[in-house]
Amino acid sequence: MGASPVSPHPHLLDGCSHAVLRFPRHQRARPRAAGSLPASQSTPPRPRLSDFLRSHANEILEAWDEFAATVNHDGKALDAVALRDHAAEILQTIAKDLAQPQSPHQQDEKGKGRGPRGIDPTPAETHADFRMVAGFAVDAMITEYRALRASVLKIWAKDGGGTEPEDLTDLTRFNEAIDQSIAESVARYTRQTHSASELFIGVLGHDIRNPLGTIMMSAEYLVRSGQLSKGAAAPIVNASVRIKAIIEQVVDFTRAQADGEMPILRVPGNLADQLAKIVEETQVRHPTRTVRFESSGDFEGSWDEGRMGQLLSNLLGNALIYGARDGEVTVRMWNAGAEVGFSVHNHGKPIPLAEQERIFQPLERGLHQQLSGEHREPTGLGLGLYICREIVMAHGGTLQVDSREGKGTTFRVSLPRTVA
């Protein structure tokens, strides 16, 4: 009895698994009866997978639509019409790739993401562009490729695919081509997201900062010219300063999220001199509060002066907002050989121990204030302490908080003098 056709491995139909095929053991060829036709003349050879993709494109795309429409993302089913926009081009590209001969070296290069490509964007890259504009998350886009893989393998198996030795080679190359398309789409999506973030930063940095600067300069001019009293101009200036701080926080947050770290530019300088200026400016802006500054010793090193000022400004702002209104705020500097640092202390209700790590996460505005039952006017987006931590980490340092009943709250910054 001849060997019966063997179906593909059950994993063949799994959209996210590479198929594994089992083939029948070859038997010794039997003598052909006199007058009978060779098998090659009686049965035409079955098309290779590349030809199958072209001849069954419509059926594959219809099955792909049905599969993908069953997968929900954020409670919404993927639009079957929108799903097909670039699928035909992607399928055609894969079929063309399978039809080309491939050496072991070429296969190895493709596996490393270094396959040949032209100047123009690939269909997978174009697909990623449209998906990002349409608001698709990257995981939804990957699901589309899982659906395409599953649709091809299901229809191919129904047509008898997976029963010939050469099918294993075709299947391996097909999976490699799908993986390459996924890699191209994800890389393109990531680059486009980064570009959108940079554009957002540019809009904030130029189109909003410039008119805000005009408002501040106009208020100062009105005071100098005698057309407006300092008391009347103070709300305008203070509001502008707060808006500027929020813009800077959003810009820094966006850049840190996109680049993975806060950009800094180290220059030699005296940290004590830099921070003393910030304390003085803060005291001028808050004449009813007391901000003390203590330093003694050598504080020469290499830092980003602007970021250090931003770091202390954020910590002082946090202390003035959440500390006791009648208590003073103290900035105390220290040095210990290769390290220097400073602390910012304020009196007031402590931050619960369980929340002391969370306050450095973005968008955790006034968390300890909410837990303590206090209610004060929101002053930012909850990014200040997160940005403080990013600045310190970019300098290779540490930022810690100690907050206890009766002792107040202290933020302690430790920094290496130079880059390790």
TrEMBL record:
Organism field: Ramlibacter montanisoli
SUPFAM superfamilies: ATPase domain of HSP90 chaperone/DNA topoisomerase II/histidine kinase, Homodimeric domain of signal transducing histidine kinase
Signal peptide: none
Name of the protein in question: histidine kinase
Keyword ATP-binding in annotation: yes
GO biological process, one term: osmosensory signaling via phosphorelay pathway
EC number: 2.7.13.3
Domain of life: Bacteria
Domain Histidine kinase: 203-419
Transcription regulation as UniProt keyword: no
Classification via Pfam families: HATPase_c (PF02518), HisKA (PF00512), RsbRD_N (PF14361)
Reaction catalyzed: ATP + protein L-histidine = ADP + protein N-phospho-L-histidine
EC top class named in words: transferase
Region of interest: Disordered: 27-49, 96-126
Molecular function in Gene Ontology: ATP binding; phosphorelay response regulator activity; phosphorelay sensor kinase activity; protein kinase activator activity
Record keywords, A-Z: ATP-binding, Kinase, Nucleotide-binding, Phosphoprotein, Transferase, Two-component regulatory system
